Structures are given as structure tokens and as C-alpha cells.
Amino acid sequence: MQPLLMNTAIVLVFLLTIIALFFFILTRGALLMRELSSDPADEKSHVYPIYSNMRLIKLVDYQPIISAILLFQYKRLVTKIVSGIRQLDLQNKKVLITSCAFGDVIPRVVGAALQSGADRILIADLVDNELINARDKLGNHLERMEFIKDDATNLQLADGLVNVNVMFFLLHELPHHLKLRALDEAGRMLTPGGKLYLAEFHRPDPWVLRALSWTYFKVFEPYGLALWDTHDPVDCLQNLGGWSYQRSTYFFGNFQVISATRI
Ligand SMILES: C[S@@+](CC[C@H](N)C(=O)[O-])C[C@H]1O[C@@H](n2cnc3c(N)ncnc32)[C@H](O)[C@@H]1O
Questions:
Q1: What is the residue range of 70's domain?
Q2: Which of 111, 123, 131, 218 sits most deeply, having the most CB atoms within 10 A of its CB?
Q3: Pocket test for ligand 1, best of 28, 42, 47 (most atoms within 8 A of CB)
């Protein structure tokens, strides 16, 4: 191999290792450390430090980085949710975003909800800094927004309060029993006929992608793999009852957007 090619390969491998180590320390590594040290009943013990430390939030929350993490499917997934919201009549109705997410999903969902006439948009998250970061992205829409520090698995909000609930890549980060509680809460929050838009990972079709994805979850996000089988969100909604739903998958089945209607 030519020296230039060799050096480029070495630098690339080095950079990828550093990036992988960075994300490992701030995801799985942090969970392992907490298992050893903290109170297991702590409601935040599953939340990665990448969401609680403002410096880390600002370091990671760049659209190209976030798009790359979702294999450049981020825009398609958000577009699916946003185009669903645009087709609704939300005059005098409320929209809930259950937990913040990086990238432009929050401003795009808020923009679509306001265009459809929504009267109020609530964003609930366990972490103050995530709410502050979301607020920073919403410039001129703030008068119709509410930022609520709350737990998606036990929301302090009234039954049937909202007509739309958006849950963007939250489930795969929750311990399994909390996945079910979050879906149950999503149903409780919705008025009959209301919509839940849920974006998540899904079991990929090609075995190569499945193997890579499996490795990713095993190394970085231990609660994610259950979405492939024991905690498939559609199966969970079916078991909870009172939902009709449609699932679209993306990128060889690696991602899914579920549009579920509360019956
Ligand atoms: C929705 S996930 C988003 C993951 C995805 N990687 C992204 O940012 O695009 C991360 C957010 O969920 C929040 N979160 C985690 N558990 C929660 C819970 N039980 N209730 C409310 N918010 C929660 C975290 O604080 C964080 O803001």
C-alpha cells in the first residue's frame, strides 16, 4: 500500500475509534457505571449524560451528526411525521412532543402543528437542559409553547388532553417495562381519534445490516434490541388495545414510523 493511503487509513481508523469511544462513554458506559453506583429506582438512571450536560448537548446537536447517526434517514422520518400532522385539522387543539430529540425534528413538528391550527404545543422531557435546548430552536413560536419537566412514563397531565403526540426515538432508550408504560401514557394523553406518531429503530431485512445493527445495540444502546421482537411497538400497542395503526419502514427496514390512532 502507498504511504499516503496507509496514513489516511490509519487516521480514519483512529478517528472512528475515538468517536466510538466518545459515544460509548456517554451511552452504554454511563449506564454500566450507574448500575454499579446509583439507586436503581432513580427515574433518570436510563438517561444518557449526552442529554443532561449542556456542553455535551451543544457538542452533539448538529444536523449532519444526527443525520449520520440515523444513517441519513432522519429527514425522511421527520417528513413522514410532519406530512401526517399537516393533513390534520388542529384548530383549538393541543399537540404534545413526548421527550426532546436532537436535530430539527422539534422545530419541524412545531411548524407543522401551528400550520394545521394547533392552539398549544407542549414539550415534555425529564431533563431541564434538553427543554432549554429545544426552546433555543423555536425562536418566534414561543408564545404558544409550554415546556414541561415531566416523565413520559408517568405524565402529570390530564387524560385526553392532546390530539397529537409525537414520540421520536424515545422507546429504544427506555428499560423494557418503561417502554410499555410510555405507550400506555401516550394512549392516556390522547383524545379519541387522536394520533400518536412514533419513530423508532426496526429489525432490518438484510442479514448484513441486521448484524451491524445488532452489534450497534449490544455495544451502545442495550435497551434497543427488544424493539425487534419482545417489545415491537406495534405488538405492544395491539396488546394494550384501543389503537389502530399503520407502520412504514425505511432503509431496508432499519427504521419505522408508526402512525397510530386512538380508538
Ligand atoms: C427522545 S430521546 C432522542 C434520541 C435520539 N437519539 C435523538 O436525539 O434524536 C432522548 C430524550 O428523551 C428524554 N427522556 C428519556 N427518558 C425520558 C422519560 N422517561 N421521560 C421524558 N423524557 C425522557 C431525554 O432526556 C432526552 O431528551
A1: 45-262
A2: 123
A3: 47
23 CA from centroid of ligand 1 (Å):
16
* Residue 262 bridge partners (DSSP): 243
| Cβ of residue 99 lying under 6 Å from some atom of ligand 1 | yes
Find the 10 Cα to ligand 1 centroid distance in Å.
35
Strands lying side by side in the sheet with 145-149: 145-149, 120-125, 94-98, 162-168, 190-201, 255-262, 243-250
**Is pLDDT of 155 > 70?**
yes
What is the CA(8)–ligand 1 centre distance, in A? Answer: 36
Distance CA 160, CA 157 (A): 9
Residue pLDDT, tens place only, 87-120: 999 999 999 999 999 999 999 999 999 999 999 9
- CATH code at 254? 3.40.50.150
Does 173 contact ligand 1 (Cβ within 6 A)? yes
Q: Ligand 1 centre and the CA of 125: distance in Å?
A: 7
Going by pLDDT thresholds of 50, 70 and 90, the confidence category of residue 150 is: very high
For the Cβ of 106 lying below 6 angstroms from any atom of ligand 1, the answer is no
| Count of domains forming the chain | 2
Distance CA 206, CA 67 (A): 21
Mean pLDDT for the chain overall: 93
Q: Are residues 178 and 221 in the same domain?
A: yes
Is residue 198 lining ligand 1, measured as CB closer than 6 Å? no
